[in-house]
Amino acid sequence: MRDINDIAKQILYNGYIRSKQSHLYILVGNSGQQQQSLYDWYIKLHVCVNRQEDIACETCAMCQTVNHHNFVNSIVIKRQENKKSVGIDDMKQLQDVFQVTAHADGVRFFCVEDADLLTTQAANSILKFLEEPA
């Protein structure tokens, strides 16, 4: 039986090789580590210079940058440790970053961890932003 990450990777890879990618994917996993792994894999799919099909080399500078969570075109919004939810201020931070020019050429990646903890106001804000970007 195939792992759910394997199925998700195949769907994402098929879209990538056919140049039919969506502007938004919602990645759900059994753990934050599983979600982070899929997120990192997807970034490397786009940036690895020695990739073989859907397998990143893990040794090039781009792969190492992603592995160390220093890839400049990746923004991760996390729930603040002292808060129980992800609020509207966090979504405004994401929107502000999205509206400025990317640090480097290429695709930009945004991740909202703990999206299941979005407040109603934050969820509505991000939906409106995704449907009608500035």
List the helices and strands and how they pair.
Layout lengths: L3 H14 L14 H16 L13 H7 L6 E4 L10 H12 L9 E4 L7 H12 L3
Helix pairs in contact: 1-2, 2-3, 4-5
Structure commentary:
The chain is mainly alpha-helical and 134 residues long. Helix content is 46%, strand content 6%. Helix 2 runs antiparallel to helix 3 and helix 4 runs parallel beside helix 5 (120-131). The radius of gyration is 15 Å and the shape is globular.
What's the short version?
This protein is mainly alpha-helical. The protein has five helices and two strands, in the order H-H-H-E-H-E-H.
Q: How many extended strands?
A: 2
Strand order of the largest sheet: 1-2
Give me the strand/helix succession.
HHHEHEH
Distance between the termini: 43 Å
How much helix, percentage-wise, in residues?
40-55%
**Tertiary shape:** globular
The gyration radius over C-alpha positions equals: 15 Å
Question: Main β-sheet: number of strands, strand sense, barrel status?
Answer: 2 strands, parallel
Q: What is the averaged pLDDT score?
A: 85
Identify low-pLDDT runs. Answer: none
Question: What is the subunit arrangement here?
Answer: single chain
Structural class: mainly alpha
The number of helical segments is 5
Strand proportion: 5-15%
